[in-house]
Design brief:
This is YncE family protein. By secondary structure, this protein is mainly beta. The protein contains 1 helix and 30 strands. The strands form 8 sheets. Strands 3-2-1-30 form a 4-stranded antiparallel sheet, with no helix packed on it. The chain has a 4-stranded antiparallel sheet with strand order 4-5-8-9, with no helix packed on it. Strands 10-11-12-13 form a 4-stranded antiparallel sheet, with no helix packed on it. A hairpin with a 4-residue loop joins strand 4 and strand 5.
């Protein structure tokens, strides 16, 4: 008999961003019970849980809208206590703006935040000390819009994906410098393998594929970058464009595929139910897929790698998927609470 995938999760919490709420909501990971929410500045995007400080970090990228259609960039990073469900501090990153991607180095107490470029500087990554909550550095990525950022397990190399620029930026975290560019035709989400040898990148840029219907349009798929040579060594094909990519603790590589259906009003179509596609990171074999809500935007997983959580911005839902059986366990309806636009996710284990 298979073990209940929810067993042993009592006291654990799933935090969910509603970018149009604007809120961060909290759900019991064992029962899916709604525990409450905290209001945050508009428009929140991504979340990162710091177990050493026991805090949530939340980026607020724009006043409204999204990457290529917004009313202006924000500058704030919100610090949240997930146990009391309250704001600890709002950090103003000015003059940096458009903070989005988050990556944490617990050993060095460093938080890396991707920020967009402006007239006087390229896009880059702001480095924060998680103990003092102060900015201690900036790394240029030589691209206007680094949107997602990830570091290797050693905490020495970082990778920024760039929607419009035709490369992934490679940075030396110890020296704080750009060291390489890996050719990718616009890139979205990414994940780094547990040994740091490979980087998995969703490509191409979603809007590039949507607007280019020619035979020469780049095919969607996960680009596998070898860290040693800083080059693409494989492509794991997908049927549709992707934004989020996530690697579980058990070595399963998850991708959120966007699917479209005809729309009489728009040539681009409209969002159809999305697809969670599962690969083995070791063999690079496709293991299967599960239909999820409309517009999968962020993926995370439980610490044991058993459950995937997929937030879908257009349907404003979070789907819970059993990764052993590849079946849908539950769907959290974020919009029911008047908080549309599900986006960032973080799994928060119960206090020790």
């Amino acid at each position: 008999m298979q073990q209940n995938p929810r067993a042993g999760r009592e006291g654990d919490v799933l935090a969910v961003v509603s970018q149009s709420g604007p809120t961060v909501s909290f759900f019991d990971a064992a029962s899916d019970q709604y525990l409450g929410a905290v209001d945050v500045p508009a428009e929140p995007h991504e979340l990162c849980f710091d177990p050493t400080q026991r805090l949530l970090w939340c980026t607020t990228a724009y006043h409204s809208g999204y990457y290529h259609a917004n009313s202006g960039r924000r500058t704030e990073l919100t610090v949240i206590d997930p146990d009391t469900r309250s704001i600890v501090e709002i950090i103003d990153l000015s003059p940096e703006h458009g903070p989005h991607g988050l990556s944490l180095d617990t050993a060095r107490h460093r938080l890396y935040v991707s920020v967009e470029g402006s007239a006087d500087r390229p896009g880059g990554v702001v480095v924060l000390d998680t103990q003092t909550r102060k900015a201690v550095g900036r790394i240029d990525t030589d691209a206007p819009g680094p949107h997602w950022f990830a570091i290797d397990p050693a905490g020495t190399t970082g990778y920024a994906t760039n929607k419009e620029a035709p490369f992934v930026s490679v940075v030396d975290l110890e020296r704080g410098t750009l060291t390489g560019k890996v050719e990718v035709p616009g890139s979205e989400g990414l994940a780094v393998s547990a040994d740091g040898e490979y980087v998995y990148v969703a490509g191409p840029y979603a809007m590039l594929t949507a607007s280019d219907h020619s035979a020469e349009a780049p095919a969607p798929g996960i680009r596998v970058i070898e860290a040693r040579t800083a080059s693409v060594v494989d492509v794991l094909p997908t049927e549709n464009i992707m934004l989020p990519v996530h690697l579980t603790s058990t070595g399963k590589l998850l991708a959120g595929e966007m699917r479209m259906e005809p729309d009489p009003v728009s040539q681009l179509g409209r969002q159809a139910p999305g697809l969670l596609t599962v690969f083995s990171a070791d063999t690079r074999e496709r293991l299967g897929g599960v239909e999820v809500g409309r517009g999968p935007l962020t993926i995370t997983s439980s610490p044991d790698g058993r459950i995937a959580y997929v937030s879908c911005v257009s349907s404003s839902t979070v789907d819970l998927v059993d990764l052993e059986t590849l079946r849908l366990l539950a769907r959290l309806d974020i919009a029911k609470r008047g908080e549309p636009g599900a986006h960032g996710l973080a799994y928060v284990p119960r206090p020790a």
